[in-house]
């Protein structure tokens, strides 16, 4: 939600800034909780020949830089209104008319109508969102899975390509499902016997403890009603993250197989299986971080919708 859209909807700009600040703070906290145990585990399983502290710092910076890029992409693409986008033939035809008018002249009608300009802007925003998500996906997988291969350029390229694929899959899913439209989070009662609910049960208890710190919430611009919406919708966000991680892992595996040999890392069968498991764990953590970020964004702007 840009400042122009907030002004057009009558929302105070200062309130929008506070909500974005609260979103960034809680996004960093939730993602760091997921990233730190994973980094410690990989460093213990694969000791780095260089300084472990430097390797950890590089992965931490890459991870949080990817989150900043994701926040920038969400800031650009989200909107409270489901604005339609222009198709590729429409953009090509409008560009041709504009060039023809600039070269020949003599046209009294404007090249672009106000409605088409809005649709074209939405299309360009979607393309920019695609590019930023690709870069953010590459960085987040490098920050999660790149610890053991910090000195192996071929493995880093492989991880970076898988991250680009992850960003592309996430972006296409985000745009196609119109998840960029700010809506009220759907409040549902979780099935207490489901595996997803059981997997987040310790995290839910932690949130209940944090809920007692009411002044701390006010300081971080995250009020208690919004906290309850976040807690209840956490299960559905994790379900989407699991589905997205499976889709991304399958597509990245297929695309990597079709690439030339210079973009592949040749390993033994055992190393290959371990590598695939590590990639899936990294993709799953990245999916959870991004889904939690999306859910935090919806919750943060719930009262503004």
TrEMBL record:
**Domain of life, per the record?**
Eukaryota
Q: Name one GO molecular function term.
A: protein-macromolecule adaptor activity
Where located? Nucleus membrane; Nucleus, Nuclear pore complex
Tell me the GO BP annotations in alphabetical order: mRNA transport; nuclear pore organization; protein transport
Q: Which UniProt keywords apply?
A: Membrane, mRNA transport, Nuclear pore complex, Nucleus, Protein transport, Translocation, Transmembrane, Transmembrane helix, Transport
Q: What membrane topology does this protein have?
A: Multi-pass membrane protein
Transmembrane spans: 20-43, 55-78, 125-147, 159-176
Record has Cell membrane as a keyword: no
GO cellular component terms? nuclear membrane; nuclear pore transmembrane ring
Family (UniProt): Belongs to the NDC1 family.
Q: Which PANTHER family match?
A: NUCLEOPORIN NDC1 (PTHR13269:SF6)
Its protein name is Uncharacterized protein
Record the organism. Answer: Zingiber officinale
The root-end lineage is: Eukaryota, Viridiplantae, Streptophyta, Embryophyta, Tracheophyta
């Amino acid at each position: 939600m840009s400042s122009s859209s907030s002004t057009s909807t009558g929302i105070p700009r200062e309130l929008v800034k506070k909500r974005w600040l609260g979103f960034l703070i809680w996004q960093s906290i939730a993602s760091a909780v997921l990233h730190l145990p994973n980094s410690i585990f990989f460093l213990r399983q694969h000791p780095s020949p260089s300084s472990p502290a430097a390797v950890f710092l590089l992965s931490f910076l890459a991870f949080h830089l990817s989150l900043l890029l994701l926040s920038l992409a969400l800031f650009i693409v989200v909107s409270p209104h489901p604005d339609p986008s222009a198709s590729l033939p429409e953009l090509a035809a409008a560009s041709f008319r504009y060039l023809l008018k600039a070269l020949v002249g003599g046209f009294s009608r404007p090249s672009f109508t106000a409605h088409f300009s809005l649709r074209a802007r939405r299309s360009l925003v979607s393309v920019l969102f695609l590019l930023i998500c690709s870069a953010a996906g590459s960085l987040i997988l490098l920050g999660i899975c790149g610890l053991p291969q910090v000195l192996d350029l071929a493995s880093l390229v492989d991880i970076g390509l898988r991250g680009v694929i992850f960003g592309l899959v996430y972006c296409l899913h985000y745009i196609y499902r119109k998840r960029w439209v700010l809506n009220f989070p759907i409040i549902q009662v979780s099935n207490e016997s489901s595996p997803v609910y059981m997997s987040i049960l310790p995290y839910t208890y932690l949130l209940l403890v944090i809920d007692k710190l009411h002044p701390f919430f006010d300081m971080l611009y995250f009020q208690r009603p919004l906290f309850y919406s976040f807690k209840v919708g956490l299960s559905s966000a994790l379900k989407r993250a699991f589905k997205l991680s499976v889709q991304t892992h399958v597509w990245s595996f297929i695309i990597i197989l079709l690439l030339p040999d210079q973009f592949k890392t040749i390993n033994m069968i055992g190393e290959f299986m371990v590598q695939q498991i590590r990639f899936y764990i990294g993709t799953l953590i990245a999916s959870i971080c991004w889904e939690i970020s999306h859910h935090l964004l919806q919750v943060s702007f719930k009262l503004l919708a």
